[in-house]
Amino acid sequence: MSRETFRRTLRGKGPVSLKGSAAKKCEGDVMHIAKSPVITMAPTTPIYDAIKIMAKEGFRRIPIADPGTKTLTGIVTATDIVDYLGGGKKFEIVQQKFSGNIFKAINEPIKLIMNQKIFTVKITADISEAIQLMKEGNVGGLPVVDDGNRVRAIITERDVASIFADRISGIKVSQLMTEKVITAPPKTTIFEAEKTMIGQGFRRLPIVSDGKVVGIITSMDIIRFFGSKMVFKHLKSGTITQVLNTPVLEIATRDVVTIAPDADVGQAAKIMREKNFGALPVVQNERLVGIITERDFFKIIE
């Protein structure tokens, strides 16, 4: 089945159509599926506080807003944090400005690493407009703002993927999945995983041994790790090298939920929603053959 056929299916009376009566809640106001109220942080919030909030609440992104006017000024994501803690160019700030002292670095205000270029949608936007913006901006979520640029809600890839849950689409996982998967061997360190994630633009890495998935490490696993009391003690004493050299398998999800390539994408969406996962490794005969993520659902929505 071609991608265009997928789209015709969605535009018609199919159960995953954004314009069919069964999906009426998704057609009009973006607020129907966006999360509200939304937690925001002030630009002066210490980076470590952001890490703890993300770790506790499971948020992959937090809008940054002026505490007085509530006006949106930026956004910080789990990827920004991973970048800063050793993954990429933001780590250069730690090395140059703080001479590698991460304890000092994480007590800096969040405005130091937040994104000021923000993609947003208005509270009156349609879901299709939000999806298009996420595609164009290559972002996983959008703050929903009012006419005064005040944050009212947030819509994410996960909200879009949930549209497909419990609905048989007639589209197989194998038709949407990414076949060439960047993986990590079991002895990979957190530092190596961070660099791979930032360098390749991925938020997760399946951990593979002899072709079999033995775990999966995500940017949120790294956030939770850095937000733990044990790691905080290391950061305070300056022993960051020991922390960064921790094998990822120690903090990764070991009991990995997978899906078969011939499964319907509606089943994949249901599992993602129920388990609160952003991706599923695709396995056939115990071998990794691909990965399907929340972003892949965008391929079948116009």
Summarize the topology.
Elements: H1 3-11, H2 47-57, E1 61-65, E2 72-77, H3 78-87, H4 91-97, H5 102-105, E3 121-122, H6 127-137, E4 141-145, E5 151-156, H7 157-162, H8 190-200, E6 204-209, E7 212-218, H9 219-226, H10 229-237, H11 240-244, H12 265-275, E8 279-284, E9 287-293
Parallel strand pairs: 3-4
Antiparallel strand pairs: 1-2, 4-5, 6-7, 8-9
Helix content: 25-40%
Query: Any guess at the CATH architecture of the largest domain?
Result: Roll
Helical segment count? 12
How would you spell out the order of helices and strands?
HHEEHHHEHEEHHEEHHHHEE
Protein architecture, described:
- It is a single chain.
- The N terminus is likely disordered.
- The chain folds into two domains: 160 residues, CBS-domain (Roll); 128 residues, CBS-domain, CATH 3.10.580.
- It has 302 residues and is α+β, with helices and mostly antiparallel strands.
- It is flat and about 55 Å long.
- The protein has a three-stranded mixed β-sheet. A two-stranded antiparallel sheet has the order 1-2.
- Helix 2 crosses helix 9, helix 3 crosses helix 4 and helix 3 crosses helix 9.
- The two termini are 17 Å apart.
- Helices cover 34% and strands 17% of the residues.
Descriptive terms for the model:
disordered N terminus; alpha+beta; 302 residues; 12 helices; three-stranded mixed sheet; CBS-domain; 9 strands; 2 domains; two-stranded antiparallel sheet
Quick summary of this structure?
The protein is an alpha+beta fold.
